[in-house]
Amino acid sequence: MTAPRIGVDLDKIEQNTRVLVDRLAPVGIRVTGVTKAVLGSPGVAAAMLRGGAGGLGDSRVPNLDRLAGLGAVRTLIRSPMLSQVGRVVVVADVSLNTEAVVLAALDRAASLRGRTHGVILMIELGDLREGIAVDDAPAAVRAVLGHPSLRLVELGGNLACQNGIVPDDRNMGVLSRLVDAAEARHGIPLGTVSGGNSANIGWALTSDDVGRVDDLRLGEAVLLGVDPLHRTPIPGLHTDAFTLTAEVIEVAVKPARPWGDRAQAAFGEAPVRTGRGTVRQAVLALGHQDVALDGLRPPAGVTVLGMSSDHLVVDLGDHAVSVGDEMDFGVAYGALLRATTSPFVTTVEHRASPVGSTAPRP
Questions:
Q1: What is the CA radius of gyration of the chain?
Q2: Contact status, residue 2 vs residue 286, Cβ threshold 8 Å
Q3: CA of 235: how far to CAs of 16, 178, 215, 221, 350, in Å?
Q4: Which pTM was predicted?
Q5: How far apart are CA 54 and CA 255, in angstroms?
Q6: Does 286 lie in the same domain as 209?
Q7: Which of 186, 207, 317, 331 is 20 to 30 A from 362, alpha carbon to alpha carbon?
Q8: Which residue range is the domain that position 273 belongs to?
Q9: Strand partners for 264
């Protein structure tokens, strides 16, 4: 089988989704499964839906297009680019929005196609990424309601992604109060309040009152089984649904330290190699074009020494490895995102059941 490749255990993703859906249901929160870290994989999306996700979200229009045949509500979870509004109203049922000019363009595009497009107005809650200022939210609500081909679905927020701001009762309470005010002022029901992402899980499961929040957009927690706030495993979830496999192309005993005058390496300052004597070093056919180094988790006893565009260098320790052998690595979120996006990494999806057991990425 070709390498590098990333193996995806769809059963574990389905099980992770089911556990989170079941834990959040008692507090009235549904799950939207987010597929952006897996290039909008229909196989992964289907696993999320089997696990109980109520809809699907992705940040890229081509990824949402790949999910067309699954019969689920598709949400574009990044503000639409003006250059793509015509495509957005075709492939997305709903999109996250902050800009009046984009809303107007979406309205025109939807009208031309005889469609009604759903809008989530994103509110700035402190993380300083996308979001309308709290004081400007009433005007934004009026703007959406004034567009005949748009439908105000909900208000939403996003925290932790840009500056690590933690969701809590205070910032989530702001969102709930805005929803209450909008409904009272305009006499309309907002059926869904999208409170945030995987970073909201801890808050949602420990808060005495989640307010109006009744939907979370979950990607990392479902895929990797971790809490993004501290990258700690969530009890009861699988953390090994993905395995990145690379092939060994050189094995040699080499000095522990490089020699000669030092300058910058291919990607800036090179890591300083320490130690004495020699190391059993292997080179694998895997590089920055394939995966993010800081999210790569080597096997126990193997130490990563460095990476260039196309080469990963490791200290094998006591591992018996030969040229042509393969080595498996775990991946964190950044590494997963890079690997599934790289055209040089093949994705192989599998289930315990034979139906749909493999789905190589085109």
A1: 23
A2: no
A3: 10, 33, 21, 11, 24
A4: 0.95
A5: 55
A6: no
A7: 331
A8: 242-331
A9: none
